[in-house]
Amino acid sequence: MGYTAKRRLNSTVIHVFLILGAIAMLIPFVWMVLTAFKTKSQAISVDPFYIFPAGKWHFENFSEVWNSYNFMTLYANTLIVMVLRVVCAVLTATMAGYAFGRLEFPGKGILFSIVLIQMMVPSQIFIIPQYLMISKAHLLNTKFALVFPGIVTAFGTYLFKQSFQSLPKELEEAAEIDGCTVWQRFAFIMMPLTRSAIVSLGIFTALFAYKDMMWPMIVANKPAATTLSAALAKLQGQFGSNYPQIMAGALMAILPMLILYLIFQKQFIEGIASSGTKL
Amino acid sequence: MNQKKKRMFSTTRQKKVAQTAYLMVAPTIIGLLILNFYPIIQTFWLSFCKTGDFGLNNTFIGLKNYVDLFKDPEIPQALINTFRYAAVQVTVSIALSLVLAVLVNRKMKGVTIYRTIYFLPMICAPAAIAMVWRWMFNQDFGILNKMFGTNISWTTDPKIAWLCVAVVGIWSSLGYNMVLLLGGLQDIPKDYYEAAEIDGATGINAFFHITIPLLSPTLFFIIQTGIIGALQLFDLPYMIIDESSRAVRSVKSVTYLFYQHSFEKGQRGYGSAIVIFMMVVISIITYFIQKTEKKWVHYN
Q1: What are the structural domains, with CATH classification, of chain A?
Q2: In chain B, positions 262-291, which contact chain A (CB-CB < 8 Å)?
């Protein structure tokens, strides 16, 4: 067998393998969509080849779940929490990261160790006291409660410290000679140069807020005050074995993020991969 | 040394810079003190307390929560559940994603499409993922039993249920690990392989003598973060396995127990003891992982 023929065979084998893997990755999503459009009796049909919804596709599962769970509110809550957390995280972390990465001040080491400690302990250790603060302040079931643990970010601060440190010194020295203040140097010269880190932290923070289930379950027990992730946990309890409606709910919960991902997949993947922590 | 330090911060310009620096770190530091630093101390304190009705009136009971913890048969079971999940999920996921990354790391069409598909679970709510898998695992009507023509009780048989949770965990993390490993592979200079080829090392040989050592920092990173992440497992068993099922005993993780005691049963003192215990376990494991680092991880 010639070299090119062997190579072509090799690459066919590789593609077959990768395509089989991709199918395995997609089956749950496909099954979610197909189930969501069936009636309950169609979904539990014993016929193994009953894959597509027969006759017409049933949209009523969506409207039923939409109405009984008030998905409009869930979308709005989730979006608000995501936006507020991203804004808070980026604002506080860029400032702190810049100071830790590029300025000299007494006590820097001790203050930075507070950042490191937060990163080293498992996050469950904060949850009871955070819940007690929210509960004592009578802030359960509010947007503030949902945003609360994400107002500042140790991980983001670390990320920006690294990011600012990697920029060349000369950039700032020139600005300093021109008489720029520290704030001006930070806001107009250095911060724009960390754009990729801002995108990373933004995507990471937004995804974390969207995926997190335990915290909203704890501080928001009213369906109108919670996020998509936490509402799904309740939905499963309420709709029990009505799988088409459960799948309709799950599909509605992932669809907006899915669309964003398909448009910005490069930024998503690079943002999450470069932020280097597990979601 | 001390004098030198004093001099460093003595000029007015430097004082001004320091002032600005304090302003800049203030929101983060104050936030971390309130949201994280104080809670660590409070959780530690609560772990020595008994929680009264409605979560009020904590009374100091010394080490009783910890004594109870070591007598509680649910704790060793939760440790076993968490460890075996971590072991299977991390090993299989990394092995598979390494194969995927090596296969994708070449000039060929469709790399972006594969990457996009494999990465897909990372951007989905774990609750939604758990729900669709639970439906697929359904014994009577699920697609898995239909496809294979079997009648396996995937999520209700204690012997199988934890593996099902692990499968979902593996499926969810493949793409993430693959992307990180692919990044590591692309950093390996091509001439290493060319040089090895002249010496007669190709294929499997080159993989173990060039790829693995040069990839070891990335591998080490995903093993470490993977294990720590897996030890904090909660969403998947909570959503996939029914609480009334007999299989729930075999999937309840340490975090699951923590959640139940703290927020379903209102025993925050005992919940705090569990989370402190968990932190100690994670620290010990992290320590041993770090110790292995020198033995097999090569940094340039």
Answers
A1: 3-61 (no CATH), 69-275 (1.10.3720.10)
A2: 262-263, 268, 271-272, 275-276, 278-279, 282
Sign of the alpha-carbon torsion through A137, A138, A142, A146: positive
Beta carbons of B282 and B231 less than 8 angstroms apart = yes
- Do B78 and B41 lie in a common domain? no
Interface confidence (ipTM) of the complex: 0.91
Domain of B217: which CATH number?
A: 1.10.3720.10
Q: How many domains does chain B have?
A: 2
Q: Compute the nearest-CA separation of B39 from chain A (Å).
A: 5
pLDDT in tens, chain A (279 residues): 455 666 676 888 999 999 999 999 999 999 999 999 988 888 887 665 677 777 778 888 999 999 888 899 999 999 999 999 999 999 999 999 999 999 999 999 999 999 999 999 999 999 999 999 999 999 999 999 999 999 999 999 999 999 999 999 888 888 888 888 999 999 999 999 999 999 999 999 999 999 999 999 999 988 889 999 999 988 888 877 789 999 999 999 999 999 999 999 999 998 888 766 555
Could you give the CA distance from residue B235 to residue B89 in angstroms, rounded to a whole number?
Answer: 15
Choose among B123, B126, B225: nearest Cβ to A257.
B123
List the single residue in A with minimal CA-CA distance to B262.
Answer: A128
Per DSSP, B122 falls in state G
Domain that holds residue B275: 66-296
